[in-house]
Fold this sequence. Notes:
By secondary structure, the protein is α+β, with helices and mostly antiparallel strands. It contains 13 helices and eleven strands.
Amino acid sequence: MRERRATRxxxxxxxxxxxxxxxxxxxxxAIAVLRDGGFxxxxxxxxxxDYIDVSGGAMPIRRVPSSGSGPHAAAExxxxxxxxxxxxxxxxxxMPGLTxxxxxxxAGGLTAMDSTAGTGSAPCVSSPSQIVGNAFYxxxxxxxxxxxxxxxxxxxxxxxxxxxVTTFAHEFGHAAQAEMAGTAGGSTGGSTASPxxxxxxxxxxLLGEARADCDAGAFLAWVIKGHAAHVHLGEDALxxxxxxxxxxxxxxxxxxxxxxxxxxxxxxxxxxxxxYRGGATACRAMTTDTMHATLGEVASGxxxxxxxxxxxxxxxxxxxxxxxxxxxxPADAATPDGAFDADVREATASGLLDVTAAHGxxxxxxVLALTIGRQRSRTSTETACFxxxxxxxxxxxxxxxxxxxxxxxxxxxxxxxxxxxxxTFADLxxxxxxxxxxxxxxx
Length: 443
């Protein structure tokens, strides 16, 4: 049985206390997640800037086991039901233009499974242990099953409402794909339908995940434009909203032909952007040739992230300095006297080299690329684009053991951009644009 999952297994159960408030504002009932001590920007006096209006009818949720429910289960279920309601509206608007047929809502509905329970079964799941930290679309049932005890609380705690919305938008994208392929609810093998373009190559499964990420991006754009009746997000929420897809991406050692492959973090960001910019039509048009997966572009083998490439930070930064300056000014590779030392002191003082050390030496090298790029750019987006273009210039082209030679380097570079203070979704997009389009994409 193949499962279509929104995220990788989180790996450890995180016990969190969620601040969830139900707020009455006239006829509007909203649920918002309280993080960092408050709502952030507030419109009026009652509603958070990012919130989900849970008033009105919604698809009911089946609980497995039926008695399983945490202290915040009801509030969490209201968030999910309202999100699914908006997703149904979105695809009801989109499907006729894509297939010439109306969209048929999920026949199997929603199933919340308690992964901590000893026994229990749900569509495509014979044991609670199979769904720890996961959510997925079950095509044989035409429904979405999710881990209510671990996944949902962690999503809300780490990423807020946006992360929850994007996760379910990804799974709903699989449902839409199955309907476009004419197999929703009709599969007997428990596996998601093949891509509707008829692709039969080894990347067919990855293409389905790419399209689901793309569909999530299309839905987010629709929400940001204010078309959703229930989900209300501002652009500032998008960094957190795409966080689950980026954090629960594949290790660089996964093969693109692996039936559970979802792509590297950069891949998933790029696919979200395609839908965010081009809508559901762009997602349906994706093929294995046009999805441009980075996963597998650099072979694993002996060049992996298991051991440091450089024995000291000084050696690492010296190598990064040489590489970035050769990229920035190939006609004059010599660094201006004293500029590098000042940049390193600034980066070290900001703590970014220490923060990104956990991601790997290439992430630290990208901090230097961002610092040098900042001197040559007018905005933070141009800086991130410069860094992305530099990463692409060495990724897969570098000698073994040097910067750019390891299969996870592109994701380490993205991690460095995400670690920047006050990073925006536009910055993340610019890194991807620079990687795929080079410096000409940076303005």
